[in-house]
Amino acid sequence: MSKRQRPDVSSPTFAVSGGARIRRVTSASAIYEQLHAAILSLQMKPGVALQEKRISEEFGVSRTPVREALLRLAEAGLVEIFPQSGTFVSRIPISAIPEAVVIRKSLERTTVEHAAEIATADDIARLDAIIARQRVHATLNEPSQFHEQDEAFHEAISAVAGYPGIWNILKTVKLQIDRARRLTLPVLGRMDSVIEEHTTIRDAIAAHDTDRARGAMMHHLSAVIPDIDELRLLYPGYFS
């Protein structure tokens, strides 16, 4: 966070929709996972102040596991801790996104090419089922569920290629991309565009056309860069 940017100390901390209490947990890892998911889904907005006391009360635990979870989130780049100011959900660093896109392109180029070489009819059926679920979520205007199926599509391609570990690596690389992309899905027509792009990738894999599959994937992954430029104007307080 730039020193010129003031944290959003007035924003609420983590709360469960409907006012329900978070289920009681005793593990720092469990707290980390729930806060991690809330930050990635933008349930906890960039710049929001995090209060150890309030979080410990909501989770029904002492401050020790909460503090451990927050330190892990800071290491992942999702939380910023300022000794004299407090702890805040990190803003999305613009400078980190181009490199993350390059890494993602490099790794997913490998997975989509291998998938195109060896995909079976069952593999294509698996991709079809995911795209079908995305169509339903797009029709119902459910961006969160849509995003989950977007993740499932790319994870399935890694599995089809025989490289499931690549997706595990990518999940850590693309954290900031995912936060930004959550802002794009409510945009009119964006979910339909993603479905189109996924269908083009699927068709190329089904045809065992590695060149077309690679090109379709590169086009799909490149869309995030112009999106970010527009998002900075729409949500200036979310980016750094």
TrEMBL record:
Keywords assigned: Plasmid
UniProt keyword annotation of 4Fe-4S present: no
Highest taxon, organism lineage: Bacteria
A UniProt-annotated Pfam family: GntR
Record's keyword annotation contains Lipoprotein: no
GO MF terms, alphabetically ordered: DNA-binding transcription factor activity
The name this protein goes by in its record: GntR family transcriptional regulator
Organism this protein belongs to: Sinorhizobium mexicanum
